Amino acid sequence: MKDWAPWILAFLVSSTLLFSNLGGWGLWSPDEPRYAEVAREMVVTGDYLIPHLNGEVYTKKPPLLFWLDAFSFKIFGVREWVARLPVVLTGLIAVLATMYFGFRLFSLTVGLWGSLILVTTPWFAWEARRAKMDIPLTLLVLLATIAFYLGNLVDREEKRKKFIYYALGFSAVGIGALGKGPVAFSIPGLALACYHLHTRDLHILKEKEFWLAFPLSFIFYFLWLVPVCVKLGGGYALDQIYYKTSALFLHTKVHRHGPLFYFYQFPVDTFPWSLFLPGALWYGFKLPEEKKKPFFLLFWWFVANFVFFSIARTKRTTYLLPLYPAAAIMVALFLEEHLDPFKEAFPSNMEKGVKYPFYVLLGLLPIIGILSPAIAYMKLRLLFFPLLGIGIILLAFLGAGLTLGRMGKTSHLKGYIISLVGITLIYSFLFIVPRADPCKSVKYLCQEALELSKRDKAPVMLFGIKTPHAGEFNFYTGMAPLPVVRKGEKGLKRILAKSDKAYLLTKGKYFDHYCKKFRLKPLVRQPCGHRFTLFSNKDFEGG
User: Fold this and answer.
1) At 286, is the secondary structure helix, strand, or coil?
2) Is the peptide bond preceding residue 481 cis, with omega within 30 degrees of 0?
3) Spatial separation of the C-alpha atoms in residues 447 and 505, rounded to whole Å
4) Which residues are within 8 A (CB) of 354 and not within 5 positions of it... i.e. 6 or more apart?
5) Predicted TM-score of the model (pTM)
6) Are 473 and 462 contacting, i.e. CB atoms less than 8 angstroms apart?
7) Tell me: the pLDDT tens digits for 305-333?
8) pLDDT in tens, 480-489
């Protein structure tokens, strides 16, 4: 039982963070409801081969996430928490796989702390509760890296075992391509290439088992893509392999940021653990030889891909999620090595790496605790009282942290930070995020539209919202396809001239542009910026 205790602890902490209030708010625009709608249309139409959105072929993503959600919908019904369930489960497995990898690389203790650091990394905990493909990709990249590493350790005489590991690794890559396209190849490929070049260990390329397993990296992807192309033509393959994936990295006009974007965004997303990452990266080069080689695998997994994504044209914070397990294990190793429970003070040679970041964290707690409710009071009052609770939590932890620092109990630092982040996250999932839901989800707008439509026996339509952006309205109205009125005066005049009443959902900026000229009357507006508006072709201001 003693050997299982760390695993049980990691499982319980992770499950609590990832499952708390999972259905407590709607699917947030734009990605969550869009992907859930593609899965819902699969269930409704019975077509699991070709993804559809608003009744049209959806080419922007391969089908893995849609299959997982559709399977979940078939079992539990179409609900918000059901759409998130596959991602939450893959996130939980990723945490436990991180623990296993830390255990195989260094020790069970490093694995345990690595898993807890990963699940208490705010951006990971948040994305692991959203119906998107980034966390399943993170798991598959992690599994692929583990399999290739273990396969490389197997003696050359054990050819069958070596082949099994490589087959598992390439299978994980191939399945990842079914969810995210070619990027599933590049992340583990770049990490392993840099690692083997750095360590000058290239015998893997001479192993027959490696090349025998290699076809598995693309066979899963093409088993789906070829039948689709038979039905839709080769242009769909070009979309999947290049235009909707690789080209976005090279020529995109959306999500464009400068090359330094991740250098300031990543520390924010991974705070407070990012405070210790520079020390962890520096410390790895001073490890004894037996630990240095596994460290360099983590180092190149993180650094090479960080540089790669920094060079790419398109940048989103979710793109770095597959790097999080590597960062978590490195930070866990660093803290475990320098927070000895038998020492009553910080090691003098590591003050800059451990002690100073800890005091920076304590200094930031009152700033965040005071500014958060203050900004909410000025900008978004519906979040004022929930964020006031966050301020109280952070100030309480400030007092505990100062006491910890005065007593010199360095061995409690990891547990302190995990408790701080964990309690803050759970509080946010219970009280803050649900309060922000009306601002981020179109659920309430669609519910109002359905009630009015049922009362007046009038259709619900979209004005100026193209099919890729219609998914959230499809999901919450349960209608696909929804009629779309083209944006512009001609389309609007045409629907206004009709004798039959209709209810139209549109972007707030479109409504504001035409409301004065046509005396349009808003029936319901989404709070916090009026992102979307519901109006009718028969309801006018002053009418």
Assistant:
1) coil
2) yes
3) 12
4) 276, 279, 335, 338, 339, 346, 347, 410, 413
5) 0.94
6) yes
7) 999 999 888 888 999 999 999 999 999 99
8) 999 999 888 8
